[in-house]
Design a protein that fits this description.
The protein has about 325 residues and is mainly alpha-helical. It has a domain of about 100 residues. The chain contains 20 helices and no strands. It is elongated. The protein starts with a helix and ends with a helix.
């Protein structure tokens, strides 16, 4: 009991003091009361400008905080719709620092993506094609990643994949792959056809293989399927492998021609990695129905008989989704 008494007295004292202060407040002189309730200085509105944002970004790039740098980049991109169009374009066109140019380009692309200016992304693509400095071209290409650029830049990617700079070509290929996967999820035929056209137009085998080997072809047209089939005859094994994998996912109406192409190619192909890709394509094109075809191919290359047997075992389960078939195939390969 005695332990709680000091606490109670202290509480009572504080409460009494507070009540006394509240009671005396109305009795304070007018000046003193005014000092207590006087408002702070009025906030001044400030218009958002390209120059102001760019100064902040230049200063922020010196910071050690990656979070702060990301915030500044996001701020410019999200403010793009409210920025003066001509001022933003002029700043982008005269910028010679690749990092800053990429930020400005991303802001212009954001204007198109948000419906404010359909021509802004084309201006970025134009600089990506015409700029002399490959570092600036690469920066402009990166700014269009995971956007609608595949279908809104008038075929720019067919030219970008033939750029003189390997870095620009690889950046373009990365854009195409990520756009198909992350923006369209393989369900937009126009974008998928544009990706195939870019892959076919590329003169760098690594670019062609990267695009075809990582894209979903479930919505491509007959013309695009034909372009991929023609790449089965490429001199580069990686391109042939990527084309074989891409043909495995074509739409139902393209499957018959694709199946004939990969079956015919298997007997003449000498590269083991390409043959494995052809086997996967045959399995994907036929599911359970591909088992007889795989059995007939077993004697063509005895070294790949275990691979064929693995496919036959998985397909015999009659799974109805390709991702489940692939997962089971991978599981079998891991079993000792």
């Amino acid at each position: 009991m005695s332990t709680g008494t000091p606490m109670t007295r202290t509480l009572c004292f504080r409460t009494g003091t507070l009540l006394l202060a509240l009671t005396l407040c109305p009795l304070l002189p007018g000046t003193a009361a005014a000092q207590v309730i006087a408002p702070g200085p009025a906030l001044q509105g400030e218009s958002c400008s390209v120059a102001g944002l760019m100064d902040s970004i230049r200063h922020g790039l010196k910071s050690n905080s990656e979070a702060y740098k990301k915030y500044l980049r996001t701020l410019l991109r999200e403010s793009a719709v409210t920025l003066p169009d001509q001022e933003l374009r002029a700043a982008f066109e005269r910028e010679t620092d690749p990092v800053m140019a990429e930020h400005l380009a991303a802001a212009m692309v954001a204007r198109t993506e948000r419906g404010a200016d359909p021509e802004a992304i084309k201006a970025v693509a134009k600089r990506a094609l015409e700029e002399h400095d490959p570092a600036l071209r690469s920066a402009a290409v990166r700014s269009m990643r995971r956007t609608s650029a595949l279908e809104s830049t008038d075929g720019a990617y067919e030219k970008l994949v033939r750029d003189a700079s390997p870095e620009v070509r690889q950046e373009a290929a990365t854009n195409i792959v990520e756009d198909i996967q992350e923006v369209y999820s393989g369900y937009h035929g126009v974008a998928s056809d544009a990706a195939v056209s870019a892959a076919a137009a590329a003169t760098d085998p690594k670019v062609t293989a990267k695009i075809l080997g990582n894209m979903d072809t479930q919505m491509i047209s007959a013309g695009s399927a034909g372009k991929i089939q023609s790449l089965l005859r490429s001199d580069d094994a990686e391109v042939r492998r990527a084309a074989a994998l891409a043909l495995g996912g074509v739409p139902a109406e393209q499957m018959a021609n694709a199946r004939q192409s990969v079956l015919a190619m298997y007997r003449d192909e000498q590269d083991a990695s390409v043959r494995k890709a052809l086997l996967q394509s045959i399995a994907q094109l036929g599911f359970f129905g591909a088992i007889p075809e795989l059995q007939r191919l077993r004697s063509t290359d005895p070294s790949l008989a275990p691979e064929i047997d693995a496919w036959i075992r998985v397909l015999s389960l009659d799974l109805q989704e390709w991702n489940l078939i692939l997962r089971e195939k991978q599981r079998l390969q891991q079993v000792p």
